[in-house]
Each structure stands twice: as C-alpha cells, then as structure tokens.
Amino acid sequence: MIAITDHNSAKNVENTIKIARNTDLMVIPGIEVETYEGIHLLCYFRTITDLKLFDQIVYKRIPRIQNKEDLCGEQLIFDEGDRVVGKEVKMLMNSTNMKLHEVIKMVGFFNGLIIPAHIDRKANGILSILGFIPEDLKINGVEVSSNHHGVGFNKYRKIRNSDAHYLGNICEKLNYLNLKTKSITGFFEYFGDTV
User: Fold this and answer.
1) CATH 3.20.20 for domain 2-190
2) Helix, strand, coil % (nearest 5) of the chain?
3) Four-CA torsion 83, 17, 39, 182, nearest 10 degrees
4) Sign of the alpha-carbon dihedral angle for 169, 173, 176, 181
5) Which of 172, 145, 167, 171 is nearest to 158 (CA)?
6) Segments making up each domain of the chain, as ranges
7) Of 147 and 55, the one with more pLDDT
8) What is the pTM (predicted TM-score) of this model?
9) Which of 15-19, 104-108, 142-146, 169-173 has the least mean pLDDT?
10) Which residue of 28, 84, 131, 161 has the fewest CB atoms within a 10 Å radius of its CB?
C-alpha cells in the first residue's frame, strides 16, 4: 500500500490509482495540507471522488501567488503513462488560509482521516508550531520521521513515512501496519475509522 500526499495538491493521485489497477499495489487517496499556522496535515480519503472534492476546496484556499520555477521547481501533473499533461502555476508550497481546526472539520465532513505530519521535525510539525498536541484535537494518529519512534505519544497510532519528494528517495519500507484486510477500509479501521 502507498499513499500519494503531495503538498496542497491531489492532481497526481487519480493517475497513480489508474497505474496500480490490475497490480497488487493499493493506493490510498491523500493530500498533505499546510494550515494557516504552517502545520502539515496528512489527509486520507476513502475514495478519489472525495479527495478531488476536498482538493478543489484546498486549491481555492491557497494564495494566488505564481510559482517561481527557478526557485521552487516545476509543479508537474502526469498522466498514467508518466507523460507531463500539465503544470500547476499557483505556488503550492504556501500555507492555505484554513486554520488547523477548519481543516480537521472539513476532512471529517468527507469521513476522512487526519494525521499530523512529521511531528518530531522542526519544520511544519505540530509540536514545533504549537509546542503540544491539543487534547481536544480530533486526529487519528501521528506521523513520525524514520529516525524517531514516537516515544511519548503512545495514545496515538503512529505511522513512519519517508516524506520523499522523489521516487528515488524512497529507500526502505517504513511502515508495518497490522491491518485486518489489505484495503482502504482496513487502513481506516486501523486508525480509528474517521475523525
């Protein structure tokens, strides 16, 4: 199983799902949203339809600042044949104007999962931004980096990801989740279903 969680965009997820059809690979629809506060949240959905609707909301909430390719690189959109079919012109690396609780509420509307990303890193982790995880925060787990074991966060399910920005940077299998079934439903059940 893999999840594609591009920063503030889900435009490459559907074609990844198409590529995985008729293989043993399962793709979980997802996106990484940067909140107004600068916190990265992994948002997972049961269907590509829900993800696409959520992606439209996120896109409208990103500032209208043009991407600077010489500084930030190209933001390419691919088809299932790995051909470039488009280029995102809006700079996706900005924060959205949605606050933390608003993103969580919106993902809950779509019956999705929320997992704060790389909580142990200094950049864009909930701990570095807020200093703590609020007790009333409706999250399904936490993501820790590959060299951290999430000590002190035993009340949450943990996931370890590479946060790779290129396929070649994924160097090892990081997660071993004991799912009841190899399915999106099994993934959701493991993390407590929904927020």
Assistant:
1) yes
2) 25, 20, 55
3) -150
4) positive
5) 145
6) 2-190
7) 55
8) 0.91
9) 169-173
10) 131
